[in-house]
Amino acid sequence: MKKHFMNKITLYVMLMVLGSLLLYGCQSKENQEVNEVPVPIEEAQESQQEENLDVPQLEVEVINVVEKKYEDILATYMSALPIKQSDEPVSTIEQKKWVTDMKTLYDEKGTSKAIYNLYKEGIGKLAPEEADLFTAYAISGMRRNSFEDYKAIESYAMQPDFFDRFFKEAEQYDYKYIKLAQNVDAIEDDEIKTLVMEAKDQGYYLASAEGMLFYLVDFTEFAKNRDYNTEPMRDLLITLAIDTLEPMASDGGFIVDGDIIAARTYGMGKMLEGYEGTLYEKYMAIRFKDHMSMLLMGIDNSPTYNFEDQRLKEDNLRIFKEIQTLEDSYMAELVTAFMELVSSNDNILDEEVRTEAYEMLNKIDEKYNLTLEDLSSFGTWMSGLGVEE
C-alpha cells in the first residue's frame, strides 16, 4: 500500500514538472529548479485541476463498521482454533478400512475413548470425502455415549462441597469449562483435576448447568483436524468448536451479549454463500436458522423483549438496526423483514407477532431447500442415533 501511495506521489510530481517545462520552457535554467522534496498531494491536485488534468484518486476500501465488528469477534474465536497441517492420504483401500473400522466401532457401541483414539489415529490418513464420514461417525458415537457416560460422575455432584470447589477452579476462566481441559496442570484441586483429565481422555470436557455435572464433546479437538475435511464439514466443525469455546446459553438464558450472537449468526451466513445443498451445508443451514431465531426472539429466560410490556429491548433494537446496514446479506434481509413486522406493532413483540416471525423464518427452509428429512437427519446425527452417508 505504501509503495502504491508513493508511486502516485511520484506521478503527481512528474506531471507538475512536465507542466512547468511546457509553460516556462523559454526561461533560464535558474528558474526551472525542481525541489527535491515531493510536492504535497493537495498542492499537486490543485495544480492539476488548474491545468484541466484528471486527478488520480487514492483508492480507499470502504469497510462497514458493523461487518468489521463481527469479523473481529470471529477472528478472536479463530485464533483459539489452531489447525494441524494435513498429510498425504494413504491408499484408497487403506482409507476404506479406516472408515469401516470406525463404522464398526460405532455400530458395536464402542466407548468414546475407543472412538476418540481411533479418530486421532486415522483422520490424518484420509482424503476429504472419507474424512467427513469418518468424522461424522466419531462425533455421533461420542455424542450418543456422552448421554450415558456422565452417570459415572453423578455421585461427585452429591458431595456437599463439590460444586464450590469445581466453580472455584472454573471461575478464573469465567466459567468457560473447556479452559479447564486446556489448562489441566493449573487445576489445584486434585479430585477436580482427575475428573477433568478422565473427561479429556475420552474426547470430552467437564461442564455444569442447572445443578448438574456432565460431559460435552470437545469439538475444538475435531476442529484442529478440519484441514482433512471438505469445506462444508470444515465450516460445520468451526461453528461447533466455537460453541465449545463459548457456549451461548446456560440455565435457559444467554450468557453472551447480543453482539456475540449476531456475529456468530453472521459468520454462519457467510459460510453459506455459494450454497450447493450438500449434506453438511444443509446441517449448517439448520444451525443458521436456529441462530436467527435466537437472535430475533431470544430464548426462554432471555427474550429480546421486556417481560412487562413485550416491547423490544433497546439494545436488541440497536443490534437489529446495525445488521440492516450490512450489504448483500441474507441475514440483513431477514432482520429487515422482522423489523417491518415489529414496527407495524409499535415495536411490541406479542404472541401474534412472534408467530408471524417464526413463519417468516421458514423462508430459510425454502432458500436452502431444507426438508423435514434434513431436519430429522441432523437431529439423528447430533443425538447419536445414526449417520447419513
Can you characterise this structure?
Helix 4 (92-107) runs antiparallel to helix 5, helix 13 runs antiparallel to helix 14 (279-297) and helix 16 (330-343) runs antiparallel to helix 17. This protein has a domain at 2-50. Strand 1 (204-209) and strand 2 form a beta hairpin. With 389 residues, the protein is mainly alpha-helical. Helix content is 60%, strand content 5%.
Please render the helix and strand layout as text:
Elements: H1 2-24, H2 41-50, H3 65-79, H4 92-107, H5 112-122, H6 128-149, H7 154-157, H8 162-171, H9 178-182, H10 190-201, E1 204-209, E2 212-217, H11 219-224, H12 231-245, E3 249-250, E4 253-254, H13 258-271, H14 279-297, E5 298-299, E6 302-303, H15 314-323, H16 330-343, H17 351-361, H18 363-367, H19 372-382
Antiparallel strand pairs: 1-2, 3-4, 5-6
Helix pairs in contact: 1-2, 3-13, 4-5, 4-6, 5-6, 12-14, 13-14, 16-17
Quick tags:
mainly alpha; 19 helices; disordered N terminus
